[in-house]
Amino acid sequence: MGRATIIIATGAILVLGILQMGMNTTRKSIAEGSASYANNVQVRNTAFTASQIAMERINESAGTWHPTEGSPWYEEIEGYNISLYYELLPTSASGAFSSLEEDTVIIHTVSYYLNSLTEQQDSVELINTYTKTALHFVPEFKSALSFATDDFTFSVGGSSSISGNPPSGSSCETKPAITVMDDGSLINDDYNEVTNADPSSTHFESDSTDVAIDPELTYSPVDELIARLSEMDGTISISGNYKGTMGSEESPGVFFVEEDAKLTGGISDGYGIMVVRSGGELAYDSSGVELDIAGNFTFNGLVVFEDAYELKGRGTPTINGSVLVGHTEDSSSGTINVDMSGNIALQYDCTAEKYAQLASANLLDQNRYKRLSTYE
Prior knowledge:
24% helix, 2 domains, 36% strand, 5-stranded antiparallel sheet, alpha/beta, 4 helices, 13-stranded mixed sheet
């Protein structure tokens, strides 16, 4: 009986020992598996980080940094060695506005690591697909003339016209002739002059509505875009008797008028963005006659009156696109006086909107990326 008890006890000890060894082995496997899983997650995060760095380098180099499959970029990130290259699939669009269309970027990233289970070098390849579009930050054209301020006066007369209807033969949608922030009928007589415009007036043209109320209309962040563009090397400052370029369809520009200026030398067309601010006045010398904005001058794009004292639309200029009137947050310039008389024509045009976008994008030279997919 005693011997049997000893044998049984010894057997139990052996069984428990075997179970303990099995449990230790299981714990070790679980620990190794957990470590391997954590390592794999870190490796994938590193590969994704490399893709983010690649997009920054593409932006900083304006696309000239381009590692290829045959000559990839090698780097160490968080202790892991990676290699990376990308494919660029340009848009099929052509023409002056093709750079505003989406390109496709496919980034191939390989991250190398030591596999804790096999104790061999292993790797993970991530393939991230993005769309790449040029940043421009140009606000949507709400109408032919937009007041992003409640501190203005407005008058219209002569044969001037403000039209939100699309130009003949274009694919543009119809917009209001004028957009204001709110009706302000009880507190601002100037809004009354706009919002209570005579329905029979020939100055306003729109199959949508002559005057629209848009409570979301604001001059911010347009003011930030204007401040940024003003510091760019490619911006053109117009002052005195200006005889230089005003941009072209293929290469629209960004122009600032901050002092008294005249367009001379037979300038008849302009493209891009024109900013008149801080009391600047723009005139056009036509056959010895000085006019406040332009004589027989056509500007295609966005015209911004920022903290400017006066917008005088006398003479026969044409602005295709949109005019935006606004105050910066810290402005002390006071009321902006808008005088639309003579034969000035403000014509909403979505093609001119693209000229403004292209002008800004060319100067900013930055891209926005949107991830479409990630797979191994």
